[in-house]
Design the sequence.
């Protein structure tokens, strides 16, 4: 099988490859030796002969971009689609907005910054926390009558995750809030009995 480059051409590649891209090196060889070498042939030759140009194709740490500090010139139709300073999108919700999200609960916007859980909070949790302070870890707020639109403070009951699980498993959340609270007490007693018997 014939070699792609003779001795002289190979030496030329080794002498000139540092800091030069494959396409540029192919052009240099083609001009000097009247060849029709492609960028991929140079790439393969360098790989087969374990040669490196030292180029990584990446910006090195500390690299300063050529357009640093410059502003993009507005040309053509760009200005029509760019947000102006202080612009608010058409679907912006002000703080205090109430929405029913896909989970079926009413959410209230409490902030304009941060991720979703920092900007929005469930209404029943806000109401309960306003009266009682932060909800402890591993606790939930139960709608005693099962209606997640009834935000009466007497209808919002603090329960642990395990109590909520037992109420849901047993189907103990009734339209009658008093009945649900009674079943919650039964669940609490059962949980204590289980702890004692362990």
Sequence:
């Amino acid at each position: 099988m014939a070699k792609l480059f003779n001795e002289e051409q190979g030496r030329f590649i080794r002498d000139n490859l540092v800091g030069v891209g494959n396409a540029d090196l192919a052009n240099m060889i083609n001009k000097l030796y009247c060849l029709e070498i492609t960028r991929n042939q140079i790439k393969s030759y360098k790989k087969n002969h374990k040669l490196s140009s030292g180029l990584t194709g990446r910006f090195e740490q500390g690299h300063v971009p050529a357009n640093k500090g410059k502003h993009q010139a507005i040309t053509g139709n760009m200005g029509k689609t760019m947000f102006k300073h202080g612009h608010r999108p058409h679907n912006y919700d002000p703080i205090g907005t109430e929405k029913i999200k896909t989970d079926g609960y009413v959410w209230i916007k409490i902030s304009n910054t941060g991720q979703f859980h920092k900007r929005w909070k469930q209404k029943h949790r806000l109401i309960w926390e306003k009266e009682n302070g932060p909800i402890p870890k591993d606790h939930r707020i139960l709608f005693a009558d099962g209606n997640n639109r009834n935000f009466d403070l007497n209808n919002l009951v603090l329960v642990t995750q395990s109590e909520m699980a037992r109420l849901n498993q047993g189907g103990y959340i009734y339209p009658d809030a008093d009945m649900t609270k009674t079943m919650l007490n039964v669940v609490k007693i059962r949980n204590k009995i289980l702890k004692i018997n362990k």
